[in-house]
Amino acid sequence: MGNSRVTVREIARLAGVSVATVSRVSNGTGQVSEEMRRRVLDAIEEYGYRPDHLGRALAAGRHGALGLVFPGLSGPYFTELIQGFESAAVPARASVHILCTHMREDSDEQVLEMARRVDGIAVIGGTISEPVLLRLAELVQVVVLAGQGAGPVPSVSVDNTSAMSRLTRHLLVDHGLRDLAFVGTPEGSPDVSERWAGFLAAHRELALTPPAEPVRVAMQQPDGVLAAERLLRDGAGPQAVVCANDEIALGVLVGALGRGLRVPGDLVITGFDDAPMAALVSPPLTTVRQPVRDLAAAAARLILDAVAAPGATAPDSIVLPTELVVRRSCGCPTGTPPGGIGQ
């Protein structure tokens, strides 16, 4: 049981730190050195200190809850995002409310209603319109996750364009391929739009002609199977299929193997995300690793820090690094990519 008689000031004195440091450690927000964190945690454990989060939240007019707004929940990508978001929210004693719009007609109203029950919201890029995003930001702290913010709204993202350009150049330069297809729908998804732009940029930088249009499908494995049927039905498909995410790529792989094609002998396939299954299929999937959990955790921390310091300067947007991971689906021996690229 926690000892309500031990105050935060006493814990600060016992640990030899400031009250603010104790608050940051107990809330899981802000930057604290490992040595100071350990001293505070030792004092908390020894004296049974438990902060009155509910009372503080009520006094500050807070809910002790954060919101996540997704277009849907299917697939491992959203599971990773939720786990990453919770990894920052739970230590701060914040519950997580999830809203899936599923492109409902009343999704804007649903998101604005959520703002009445939470202290801040992370919104997947492209899920709500820019006017609604800006209106939402007038009500609570908002961060755009995996997309670009608008006006004062910060974002946490990766540089999809450069990452996809690097992957595409690997196929064009290191493997000498020329006939590449891009599978994914740029419209409505900032991530896919940027990846399509990177695919096109790599061709243009090498004075090569890219395909005029992508193969437009949704983002799940069955959609990849459908894409494979469209691309390979006449027996004269492209040399390589560059997919907007790993789920599509795994579907294309199933479709290609089902037609008796050898991957990568007859067809090269690549993805994006480095989902857990990407390394487990045969052949293992060449892809771009993005830190999905870290993206969501960073978004939660931005919100928590802003809520803890109302009136402070709006936080800066964050761009996290990616890594090209080459495996056998592009023709590289796993672990020995040409030119030292990737893994």
Describe this protein's structure.
The chain is α/β, with parallel strands linked by helices and 343 residues long. The chain folds into three domains: 44 residues, 434 Repressor (Amino-terminal Domain) (Orthogonal Bundle), CATH 1.10.260.40; 122 residues, Response regulator (Rossmann fold), CATH 3.40.50.2300; 142 residues, Rossmann fold (3-Layer(aba) Sandwich), CATH 3.40.50.2300. It has twelve helices and eleven strands. The strands form three sheets. Strands 2-1-3-4-5-10 form a six-stranded parallel β-sheet, sandwiched between helices. A three-stranded parallel β-sheet has the order 6-7-8. Helix 5 runs parallel beside helix 12 and helix 10 packs across helix 11. The radius of gyration is 23 Å and the shape is elongated.
